[in-house]
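In line with agreed milestones, work has continued on tokenised descriptions of protein folds. One protein thus recorded appears below exactly as we store it:

>
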Amino acid sequence: MARRIFKAACLVAALVLVLSSAVLLALFYDRLVSRTEEELRTEAAYIAQGLDFQGEQYLTTLTDHSRRITLVDADGTVLYDNMAEADQMENHLDREEIREALSQGAGSTRRMSATLDQETFYYALRLDGGQVLRLSGTESSIWALLLAVLQPAAVVVIAALILGMVLANRVAKAIVAPINNLDLDAPEACESYEELSPLLSKIARQKRTIDAQLHQAQRRQEQFRLITENMSEGLLVIDDQTNVLSANGAALRLLGATRRPENPSVLALNHTEAFRTVVRDALSGRHSEGRLEVAGRTLQLLANPAGQDGETTGAVLLVVDVTEGEQREALRREFTANVSHELKTPLTSISGFAELLKSGVVAEKDVADFAKSIYDEAQRLIHMVDDIIRLSQLDEDDAHRETAPVDLYEVCRQELARMRPEAERRGVALSLQGEAATLVGSRPILGELIYNLLDNAIKYNRPNGTVTVTVSAGKRIRLRVEDTGIGIPKESQGRVFERFYRVDKSHSDDVSGTGLGLSIVKHAAQFHRARVELQSTEGQGTTVTVTFPTDE
């Protein structure tokens, strides 16, 4: 240990000496450079003033040749140089300082000599006449300065290292001496480092035992954390003072907390009376259940007491999100009620017409009309059953549906051909625009989507109206179905995708429908992770846009 301390102290001393010397040399050289550049700028300013008053002849009056003075024309031609013949010098337009002075008014640069022992500083100043005055001076480079101070610096460093080694040796011995004499049983009798062996053995055995226990505890804690953090249900463990002992991320998320509150009590996570009642009952030793409404979601809370020997020392709370189940149940009840109501209407009509025919009170000339009414209601019933079946199929698990690349433009072309007879019967013109756009999806479901959009656009159009289908490709594939029909009132636009919902105008005698078409469109779009947008102006027409994501 003493040897390590000695080596570390010597190394630190050497590093400090070297670094401090380097820093001082760098600061000195930086100061020298700054001073030289400032002198060049000052002298150039003075010479420029002389040139303004006397012209180029002023340069011949300067007898100090410590600075090289060069006058360069705007095209780079050397007009004057105090250390060389101007007419024999090459063009200076490629010099960095000359270019910078011509463009910015002043420029400076430094160039190292070939031997690296000198560095030349250049400063160029653009005169009012467009000419450039350049001054240069030579100073010793940092490497020359380093060589100059190397010998005295080496003497100082060696002396400092010797002194540091002596001091480091003494300090290392002073630090290690108490450790070498340490003996927990009889410290005064300890004379050698070997006497620490029994203590170190005991410490080693205790450390191995503690490490094994700590590792096992950490492993169990990590297993518990992994299990609880991968639960979709929230798990809370509290003590008898309602303080949170453990909480997984799902519990905090479900209860609307982004992080654990500063207040350790579980009651800080939710302030409702239902939550407090469940916690209170569990800490009283009873199983308790409750329901919470948090951020529009329905949570079921289950709590069981935890304790030993009949004494409750805490409780375990399980938070389950039952929102989806509640919504599905509500949808199921609503769907059942709507189906019952919608099916009852045509069946009642069929039963009534049939009863009149059976009783014989219908005149012979009206039998055909009654039969047509029965047929129309039966067809309406068949269409409704077909739509209900399609909607139920879309509600099924989507994971097992087969998908493949589908050209949306081609599907639209086929569906338009399928709907063209109905459109011609109603006097509606169909047109397709756009380009080929391939997406990964289900061909039958895409066909249902387009069919129902076209069916609505034709059914609720006007005589001599138009339906335009546009397919556009790009970062997002868009399908737009635009009609010139009767439009949808603003107050009904938010509900037209609900099952069995029909706008009042659609109950007219010449338009029949089940109210499931746009609901099928909505579910088909959801299957393809697409977004449906509706824009409609009453009396002018409706535009439905379906935007499909691409897997890029």
Summary: The two ends are 62 Å apart (CA to CA). The chain has five domains: 2-145, 194-229, 231-321, 326-393, 398-548. Residues 2-145 form a domain with the Beta-Lactamase fold (CATH 3.30.450.20).
